[in-house]
Design goal:
Length: 296
């Protein structure tokens, strides 16, 4: 089963990389520097967790690969744009991402800002131009991605994160921040993949997918906090220890490493339990395992 999952994962990673390459403007298209920066920020790096979650959720609803591909790439482009902007000096001011200089270091700040803006708009261009089973499903996917990206999702979570630097907050506040900053885009990836199916999700199915995505999205951030405190920059492909350096509240600073790891395992168990009555959920289950047991 493990070897089957590895083959499934590797095939879809290659498929996603090729699709992203097709969707992104060529580097020699005017304006060349902007398009080169966009490609630099996306191609050849990252774990592609969000696309893999979309593909796995698409299996639950027997979704066509072409439709899930568009949704998966749209989510990944939003994620890539957020990383470009998060690394800017006005945000986290980082110099290393995915094992190479951040976009604003490799190019410059204005180009990085425009690259992020352009990746965001490209995501919605792709999603809006991909036929789906029904107009209602099409609109639902666009709404999911828009809400997950905006002030009530990822951008809002980043704003709360910046506001809380050096502050003492409780676990409830920390969970709310990370549910917005990290969790909403992971939840969007899962639901968008499932919405690519030929038939609407039953209310119970959507609820179970929501429970799974919420739990695994939060677990992803908990493990991120643990790895930031315990792994090296070489392992992570980004600057390690920057949460403590910037005096940011994290699950490690509030709970300690052991308790944070146990919390991630509890969230993993919740995610797995939510899948049990769903059809074709095996790859979602294995992705949950990968998220919680990753070392980078």
């Amino acid at each position: 089963m493990t070897s089957d999952f590895s083959a499934w994962q590797q095939n879809l990673l290659i498929h996603t990389e090729l699709a992203l390459d097709r969707y992104l403007p060529a580097g020699d298209t005017i304006p060349q520097r902007l398009h080169t920066a966009m490609r630099y920020a996306v191609i050849g790096g990252g774990k592609r967790i969000r696309p893999l979650l979309a593909f796995a959720a698409g299996e639950v609803s027997n979704a066509p690969l072409t439709q899930v591909t568009a949704a998966a790439c749209a989510v990944e482009l939003i994620h890539a744009y957020s990383l470009v902007h998060d690394d800017l000096p006005c945000m986290d001011d980082d110099t290393l991402r995915r094992g190479k200089p951040t976009c604003h270091i490799a190019f410059d700040e204005p180009t990085a800002l425009l690259a992020g803006d352009s990746l965001q708009s490209l995501a919605f261009d792709i999603l809006s131009n991909t036929p789906t089973a029904s107009p209602a499903q099409h609109v639902a996917m666009i709404q999911l991605l828009a809400r997950a990206s905006g002030s009530l999702g990822m951008a809002g979570g980043q704003a709360i994160d910046l506001d809380n630097v050096g502050q003492i907050i409780g676990l409830a506040e920390l969970e709310h921040m990370h549910r917005l900053k990290t969790g909403t885009l992971i939840e969007a990836a899962v639901l968008m993949g499932a919405l690519c199916g030929d038939h609407p999700l039953e209310p119970g199915q959507r609820e179970r997918l929501n429970t799974y995505a919420h739990a695994i999205g939060l677990a992803f951030q908990v493990i991120d906090d643990v790895l930031d405190a315990t792994a090296s920059s070489q392992q992570l492909g980004k600057t390690a220890g920057k949460d403590a350096l910037h005096d940011k509240p994290t699950y490690v600073s509030l709970m300690g490493c052991d308790a944070a790891n146990q919390f991630a395992l509890d969230l993993h168990a919740e995610a797995i339990a939510a899948l049990q009555t769903l059809p074709n959920h095996q790859h979602l289950s294995m992705l949950a395992d990968r998220i919680v047991r990753r070392d980078a």
